[in-house]
Amino acid sequence: MQLPERKRGLASEIWKHRKEYLAISPFYILFAIFGLFPIVFSMYLSFHKWDGIGEMTFNGLNNYQFMVTDPEFWKAVGNTLLIWVYSTIPMLFFALIVAFLLNATFVRFRTFFRIGYFLPNVTSLVAVAIVFSTLFSNNYGLLNYLFSLFGISPVEWLNKTWGIQLAVSMMVIWRWVGYNAIIYLAGLQSIPTVLYEAAKIDGASGVQSFFRITIPNLRPIILFTVITSTIGGMQIFTESQVLVGNDGGVSGGGLTIVLYLYREAFVNNYFGYGSAVGWGMFILIALFSIFNWRMVQGGGAKDE
Q1: How many CB atoms lie within 10 A of CB 39?
Q2: Where does this protein chiefly localize (predicted)?
């Protein structure tokens, strides 16, 4: 049986450039082993019951049915969304202000400040969580010590749902403000200065220039940071796990979706159910990202 002319031509082209394909093959081989295979296997595993050692037992959609009826899962979803709101909105707001200041001509040592703001992003996340656990400690935390100087009663931050979520949100803000500020700074530097000069000649104030020139020109970058922050915010794990443990602390206030997945899969050894939770999280992230994209794009369409 001979191959069709088109397929024979493709095969001959591949053979002709076999050295080039061989040179780039390590990336695709590693991606197939460590990227593509785990994705496919997790989908397959999500329809099975498996403890990681024994035989897999096919159970159809039972894992997904249990997931959508489990109150703990929806508590994790709610906690994750609340932490995202508490952290992402202030984070992007402060990042925009920092970028605007770093781009200002009156600020000296701008390179030093740019490096300084980016350093938290490359700091060990476990170390950051440990430091913040000392700041928000119930008995000997730095915040409670400062409160005591003003005669304010100590707050049991890590014994309250809102306190745990506030601590996790503060970690996210501290770590990612500088990263997003650098992205916004690159966008600010790409805006032609003639636009600001023309606005100044027309009598526009600095606030008017900011909302009429800066924000519209930064809209694609703002959309990018919103989407990436949504994806990152939905995957919060280390902050909660180091701060309050695998169960999410008191009343499960720090139980996020990924922490819930980790507990079910790697603590309780429900690997099939953990895979189902992972795919459920993927769907939630996709839907939430589409919602954010449409919201930002919709606002831009009205402005235009």
Answers
A1: 12
A2: membrane
Q: What whole-number distance in Å separates Cα of residue 24 and Cα of residue 22?
A: 6
pLDDT tens for each residue of 99-157: 888 887 777 777 777 778 788 888 888 888 888 988 998 878 889 888 888 888 888 88
Q: What is the residue type of 227?
A: I
Under 8 Å between Cβ of 14 and 6: no
Pair 281, 261: CB distance under 8 Å: yes
CATH number given to 66-299? 1.10.3720.10
Amino acid identity for residue 277 in this structure: V
pTM for the structure as a whole: 0.84
Nearest to 176 by CA among 286, 90, 80, 272: 90
- Gyration radius (Cα) of the chain, Å: 25
Task: Give 260's pLDDT tier (boundaries 50, 70, 90).
Answer: very high
Q: What are the residue ranges spanned by the domains of the chain?
A: 10-62, 66-299
264 and 273 in contact (C-beta within 8 Å)? yes
Q: Across all residues in the chain, what is the average pLDDT?
A: 86
